[in-house]
Amino acid sequence: MDLLVPYYEHPAARPAEWDAIIAAAPLLYGVVLNPANGAGRAPDPAFVTVADRLRAAGVCVLGYTDTDYGRRPHADVLTDLVRHRDWYGADGAFLDQVPTERRAVEHYRRLGVAARAAGAATVVLNHGAHPHPSYAELAELLVTFEGSWDTYRELDLPVADHYCHLVYAAPASARLSTRVKCAVPGAGAHPWGTLPHPLECP
């Protein structure tokens, strides 16, 4: 199982859940680290500790960076990428809110180069929907669906090894069609504050 886990809860508030994630290291493709809708303005000691534990367990740490569908300035994105590397030892980048249209490919090509220069061996682009195929050469993984289980089960989505589906409001019986995936029970405005079903704490 290759789980990509975007768990957006503070380690001090949910230590047992973070312990469960680290214990599940063999099941994980990577974990998205998101201290403050990005790296934040200063290192957070609790996230530093979690990142150290994840890396020690052999888990890829993906620093969360919002790109605002290409509207966020390149320099601001780069600052986030460097802070994730310097503060949390991130060895991957999770670029969120990426458009699907071909017009933005060159912008994200430059961001991908910047991410790799900042030490990201793994780059993930979160489109949330199926993107133009030109994006495939820019990253190891493309998130081609992010949404609810009710929507997901009505769609017949393309599948490839470099696609990932992130599904919320999903039952424990949910089966996703991509190799890399994550299905969580959470819903509403903050679904990624719940663990994927295989990692749920008792």
Automatic annotation (TrEMBL):
Organism domain of life: Bacteria
* Name of this protein: Spherulation-specific family 4
Q: Which organism is it from?
A: Streptomyces gobitricini
